[in-house]
Amino acid sequence: MASMDPDPTRTPDLEAGGGVPPGSTPPESGQISGLSAPEPRTRHRFPPTGVAAVAVTVLIVALFVAGAVAILFSL
């Protein structure tokens, strides 16, 4: 049965050590720049859940500040 590996001494353009000289390999494939399809438009508005989260956060911070002020003035 014959070996499936090619004989390095009979391989064209193969240098000693297994390298190939410049120009004997095909050029790199061309690059495609840009997108194949347009990107969907992004929304430029804040979602209602974000507005609600900010409102709840501001309310909680205000309650903590009011509690801190009440404690300071009760001393």
Keywords, separated by commas or semicolons:
single chain; 75 residues; mainly alpha; 36% helix; 0% strand; elongated
Structure description:
The chain has 75 residues and is an all-alpha fold. The protein has a domain of 27 residues. The chain contains one helix and no strands. It is elongated, with a radius of gyration of 35 Å. The relative contact order is 0.05. The model has no long low-confidence stretch (mean pLDDT 79). It holds the Pfam family DUF6480. Keywords: Membrane, Transmembrane, Transmembrane helix.
Q: Topology, pairings included?
A:
Blueprint: H1 48-74
What oligomeric state best describes the polypeptide chains here? Answer: single chain
Poorly predicted residue ranges = none
Mean of all residue-level pLDDT scores = 79
Strand tally: 0
Sum this structure up briefly.
The protein has one helix spanning 48-74. It has 75 residues and is mainly α.
